[in-house]
Amino acid sequence: MFLPTFAKQWVIRSSGLLTINLIKMEIEKQIDDLTFERWRFTFMYGTIFLDGYCLLQKENKRKRNFKVLKQYNRIMGRGNTITEIEVPFTDEIKAEALNQFVSTIKVLKWSER
After folding, report:
1. Helix/strand/coil (H/E/C) assignment for every residue in the chain
2. How many domains does one find in the chain?
3. Do 5 and 71 contact (CB within 8 A), yes or no?
4. For residues 4 and 105, what is the distance between their CA atoms, to the nearest angstrom?
5. Which domain holds residue 21?
6. Which residues pair with 49 in a beta bridge?
7. pTM of the predicted model, to two decimals?
């Protein structure tokens, strides 16, 4: 089961002519009671990009902290333990990211904003 964790939006304006909307979102997939996967995405320039991936695991149910088993980060590549090619990126994950993004879109009249 996929759990959408958050969606944040930043608007960057420069010189009044260019406006870039950055929407960040995460998808988590529970593997078992102690292990889950997390994908991070950014919507920019009309495309959803993979920003990061983590495979996290707890030692047991009583522990609070998760240990990172695998990690990929597009920006901070120094801490990566896997490459972009090794990230499990199936069509199911792509569809879930697209569905999560589409669910954030609102259709309103101009007066309702």
Report:
1. CEEEEEEEEEEEEECCCEEEEEEEEEEEEECCCCEEEEEEEEEECCEEEEEEEEEEECCCCCCCCCEEEEEEECCCHHHCCCCHHHCCCCHHHHHHHHHHHHCCCCCCCHHHC
2. 1
3. no
4. 15
5. 2-112
6. 42
7. 0.77
- Spatial separation of the C-alpha atoms in residues 97 and 103, rounded to whole Å: 10
pLDDT digits 0-9 by tens, 92-103 = 999 999 998 888
Task: Give the total residue count for the chain.
Answer: 113
Instruction: Give Cα 34 distance to the centre of its chain.
Output: 20
Order across the sheet with 18-30: list the strands: 2-14, 18-30, 35-44, 47-57, 67-73
Amino acid, single-letter form, for residue 14: S
Tokens of 48: 């959803």
Main-chain phi, psi angles of 77, to 5 degrees? -70, -15
Model pLDDT for residues 38-90, shown as the tens digit of each residue: 999 998 888 899 999 999 999 998 888 999 999 999 988 888 999 999 999 99
